[in-house]
């Protein structure tokens, strides 16, 4: 196995692959989880090759084992390539930049520092490919945070890891479904810390990132609903200590003065209902569970996780490594298919 894998030397895709479809690096995630099992059927889905040119960054042999588990071994050829420019995109073929980091006997569904380090390396190589222009976006299968830390990489998750790898100080997490889209002002910190971190500048920047992402996706004039922090958005000072007036209202005033249709602060217990019936194109949640809970009630297969503010497009499944079912061949690839679809919708066309 390669102890210190390096990024492939390829840059832009070759001419025969530049048909206007974006090249997307698909990272395999934690090899002990369900990532390989959802990637194989997702990349064989008839709609996938009609939208993108996918290249997996991962472990080819693990994908072959996954193909056997999901009953698709006879329908797929998993081919190792050195760089995206070497890939051929035909039905039934999966192109893999093989870092060769996983042992053949790695058990499914078990926490592994080796798998955690490998998951980091897949993302690192994909980020380098994206920054070089070799791919136009990244779609990530789930990693396990405990395994990632055990492998020596102390990041809260994909969002913060990709921000570090691409040299960006601040990004936002957006969850996207057909019913509602949610962007978060804070994510992977405790509730008390989240309230302390929220301030007008952070709220303003988060709303702008969400607004810009929707405009790029074709929503010309997004209507954005901004949640409050306290129950009933503070009820005019009845709940909390004036956080809405101090931390949110000043940001909304600046945004509206710039022509951004940001409305609020809204009671979070009704904001998502209003978004679901079409009143808002985007809801801004103040903290992790305020945004994640309503989205996940729709079903894990319905949601896609996007990192907004990176210099490259990044989408992801909105579920974890599911160690409890990994290796059984029963994982639902729906969220991965949807993540690839949204990567196609947001990524630019190749210029090479």
Please indicate the percent range of residues in DSSP E strands (runs of 2 or more).
15-25%
Average the pLDDT over all residues and give the rounded result.
91
Instruction: Give the strand order of the largest sheet, numbering strands 1, 2, ... along the chain.
Output: 3-4-2-1-5-12-11-6-7-10-8-9
Count of DSSP strands: 12
Descriptive tags:
352 residues, 35% helix, 12 strands, 11 helices, alpha/beta
Kindly describe this structure.
Helix 1 (35-44) crosses helix 2 (60-69) and helix 3 (113-132) crosses helix 5. Helices cover 35% and strands 17% of the residues. It has eleven helices and twelve strands. The chain has 352 residues and is α/β, with parallel strands linked by helices. Helix 8 (243-257) links the parallel strand 8 (223-227) and strand 9.
A few lines on this structure:
By secondary structure, this protein is of the alpha/beta class.
């Amino acid at each position: 196995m390669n102890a210190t894998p390096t990024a492939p030397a390829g840059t832009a895709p070759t001419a025969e692959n530049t048909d206007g479809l974006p090249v997307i690096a698909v990272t395999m995630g934690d090899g002990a989880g369900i990532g390989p099992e959802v990637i194989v059927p997702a990349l064989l889905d008839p709609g996938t090759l009609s939208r993108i040119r996918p290249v997996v960054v991962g472990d080819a042999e693990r994908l072959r084992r996954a193909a056997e588990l999901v009953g698709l071994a006879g329908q797929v050829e998993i081919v190792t390539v050195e760089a995206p420019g070497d890939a051929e995109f035909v039905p039934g073929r999966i192109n893999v930049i093989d870092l060769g980091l996983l042992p053949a006997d790695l058990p499914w569904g078990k926490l592994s520092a080796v798998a955690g380090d490998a998951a980091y390396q897949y993302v690192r190589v994909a980020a380098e490919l994206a920054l070089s222009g070799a791919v136009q976006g990244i779609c990530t299968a789930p990693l396990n945070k405990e395994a990632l830390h055990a492998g020596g990489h102390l990041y809260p998750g994909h969002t913060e890891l990709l921000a570090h790898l691409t040299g960006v100080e601040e990004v936002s997490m957006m969850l996207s479904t057909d019913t509602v889209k949610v962007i978060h002002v804070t994510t992977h910190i405790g509730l008390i810390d989240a309230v302390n971190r929220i301030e007008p500048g952070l709220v303003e920047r988060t709303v702008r990132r969400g607004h810009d992402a929707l405009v790029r996706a074709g929503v010309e004039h997004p209507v954005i609903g901004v949640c409050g922090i306290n129950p009933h958005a503070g009820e005019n000072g009845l709940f909390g200590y004036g956080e809405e007036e101090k931390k949110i209202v000043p940001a909304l005033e600046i945004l509206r003065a710039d022509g951004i249709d940001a409305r609020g602060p809204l009671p979070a217990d009704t904001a998502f209902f209003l978004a679901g019936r079409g009143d808002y194109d985007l809801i801004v949640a103040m903290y992790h569970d305020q945004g994640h809970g309503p989205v996940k009630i729709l079903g894990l297969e319905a949601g896609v996780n996007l990192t907004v503010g990176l210099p490259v497009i990044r989408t992801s499944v909105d579920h974890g490594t599911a160690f409890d079912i990994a290796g059984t061949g029963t994982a639902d690839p729906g969220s991965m298919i949807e993540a690839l679809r949204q990567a196609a919708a947001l990524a630019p066309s190749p210029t090479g």
